[in-house]
Write a structure and sequence with these properties.
Helix content: 25-40%
Number of domains: 2
CATH class of the largest domain: Alpha Beta
Strand content: 15-25%
Number of strands: 13
Shape: globular
Order of helices and strands: EEEHEHEHEHHHEHEHEEEEHEH
Structural class: alpha/beta
CATH topology of the largest domain: Rossmann fold
Bound molecules: NADPH dihydro-nicotinamide-adenine-dinucleotide phosphate, 5,10-Methenyltetrahydrofolate
Largest sheet: 6 strands, parallel
Distance between the termini: 51 Å
Number of helices: 10
Low-confidence stretches: none
Length: 289
C-alpha cells in the first residue's frame, strides 16, 4: 500500500503463522511415527469470554495438527489447593508435554504459587522463574510465546534489528520484559517504557522499531512514531464489541513503514509459538517406539 510517500507494509501474522505450522506439522508427524503424540493441557479458571475465545482457538489449532489437546475449565471459586493438585497430576501425566494456566487468575489464587508449581519441563509459556532466568542469561529455554512470535514476525519480514533503536511500551513478565531481552540478544539498543515514563512521546519518536504492549486501545498516535518505523502492536482490547490494538492504525498508517494489524498480527503467532514449545517439549521425551 503506497501512502503519503511511505510504502506501508502490513505484516501478515496469519500467513507467517501458517508457514510455521506447516513445519511443525512435519515434526508432529515424525513424533507420531515414534509413538509420541504432543499433548497440551490448558487450565482456565472462571468465565472470562476473551480468555475462553483464546483457549478455543488454541484447542482448534492443536487438534488440526493432530496433537492431543485438553482444556480444564474450573469454576471461578475453585480453591488454590485444588488448582495446585490438578497441576501436580498433569506434571505426572506422560501424555501431556505442555501445561498452560490462563492468566489472569481470580484474586483469591496466588499466581506466583501456581506458576511455580508447573514442571519446568512442561512450562510452555516460559513463565516459571527458572525458565525466565534462563532467558535472561541466554540459556536454552521455552521462550514466552508472544515475544517469540514477535521475533518470528520481524525475521520473516527481513526487518533489520542489529544496532537499531527499539522502544518497548510495557514491562510485564509476559510481553514487555521478555521481548526487550530477545531484541537485546539480537543486538538492538532497547529502551523500556512504562506508566511512570516521562516524555514518552520524545522516546517513542526515536524508535526504529516500536513494540506496544500496554493494554490501552489506540494509545499510539502518529505524533509518537518516526517516519518509516516498524510498529508491532501487541494490544488486544475490546472497544464496543470490536477488537482494537494499542496502536491507532488509521492514524499512524501514513507514517509507519511496517505494522502488525489487530487482529491478524501478533495474536495468531502467540498460538503458533505455544504449539512450537509443546512440540519442542515432546521432542525431549526419551524412548517412544
Ligand atoms: N496478542 C497477544 O498474543 C497478546 C496480547 N496481549 C495484550 O497486550 C497488552 C499488554 O498485555 P500485558 O503485558 O499482559 O499487560 P499488563 O497490564 O501486565 O502490563 C501493561 C504494561 O503497560 C504499562 N502501561 C500502562 N499504561 C501505560 C501508559 N499510559 N504509558 C506507558 N506504559 C503504560 C504498564 O506500566 P506499569 O508497569 O508502570 O504499570 C505495564 O508495564 C494487553 O492488551 C493484552 O491483552 C497480551 C498477551 C498476548
Ligand atoms: N498463561 C497465559 N498465556 C498467554 O499467552 C496468555 C494468557 N495467559 N492470558 C491472555 C493473553 C492473551 N493472549 C492471546 C493469544 C492469542 C490471541 C489471538 O489469537 N488473537 C487473534 C484474535 C482473537 C479474537 O478474535 O478474539 C488475533 O489477534 O488475530 C489473543 C490473545 C494470550 N495470553
Amino acid at each position: 500500500m503506497k501512502l503519503g510517500g511511505v510504502n506501508l507494509q502490513i505484516i501478515n501474522g496469519r500467513e507467517v503463522s501458517n508457514n510455521i505450522r506447516e513445519d511443525l506439522q512435519i515434526k508432529i508427524n515424525e513424533l507420531k511415527e515414534k509413538g509420541i503424540v504432543p499433548g497440551l493441557s490448558v487450565i482456565i479458571v472462571g468465565e472470562n469470554p476473551a480468555s475462553q475465545s483464546y483457549v478455543r482457538s488454541k484447542d482448534k489449532a492443536c487438534k488440526k495438527l493432530g496433537m492431543k489437546s485438553e482444556v480444564h475449565s474450573l469454576d471461578k471459586d475453585v480453591s488454590e489447593s485444588e488448582l495446585l493438585d490438578l497441576i501436580e497430576k498433569l506434571n505426572n501425566d506422560d501424555t501431556i508435554h505442555g501445561i498452560l494456566v490462563q492468566l489472569p487468575l481470580p484474586a483469591h489464587i496466588d499466581e506466583k504459587k501456581v506458576i511455580e508449581k508447573i514442571s519446568i519441563e512442561k512450562d510452555v509459556d516460559g513463565f516459571h522463574p527458572i525458565n525466565a532466568g534462563k532467558l535472561l542469561v541466554g540459556e536454552d529455554t521455552f521462550i514466552p510465546c508472544t515475544p517469540h512470535g514477535i521475533i518470528k514476525l520481524i525475521e520473516s519480514n527481513d526487518i533489520d534489528v542489529e544496532g537499531k533503536r527499539v522502544v518497548v511500551l510495557g514491562r510485564s513478565n509476559i510481553v514487555g520484559k521478555p521481548i526487550s531481552l530477545l531484541l537485546l540478544q539480537k543486538n538492538a539498543t532497547v529502551t523500556i517504557c512504562h506508566s511512570r515514563t516521562k516524555n514518552l512521546k520524545e522516546i517513542t519518536k526515536e524508535a526504529d522499531i516500536l513494540v506496544a504492549a500496554i493494554g490501552k486501545a489506540n494509545f499510539v498516535k502518529r505524533d509518537m512514531v518516526k517516519k518509516g518505523a516498524t510498529v508491532i502492536d501487541v494490544g488486544i482490547n475490546r472497544v464496543d464489541g470490536k477488537l482494537a490494538g494499542d496502536v491507532d492504525f488509521e492514524d499512524v498508517k501514513e507514517t509507519v513503514g511496517h505494522i502488525t494489524p489487530v487482529p491478524g498480527g501478533v495474536g495468531p503467532m502467540t498460538i503458533t509459538m505455544l504449539i512450537y514449545n509443546t512440540v519442542k517439549s515432546a521432542m525431549k521425551v526419551k524412548g517412544g517406539k
